[in-house]
# Entry
Amino acid sequence: MAVKVKLADIVDVLEQATGEARFYLDRETGQIHLLTDEMFQLAEDQDTVLEELPEWEREPVKLARLIGEREGGAKGRYLALPSQFDIHEWAI
# Structure
């Protein structure tokens, strides 16, 4: 069953989009997640130990790993929302 997401929530997120952060929509829960480039760098670094990160950073880094791997059910679950560079106001 498809999850309903408020268009206003997506518009709010798109207005906040920057070049240093990416937003992902979880198609199963309807949640929108903010992940920074730093979180993706930590996720890609083989030396990063989750337990050594601050508690607030652990879940986003885990999510970044899951999205980066595109395995274990992540493929198709997380939809990358457009960045500020993907939105062309004149074309809209």
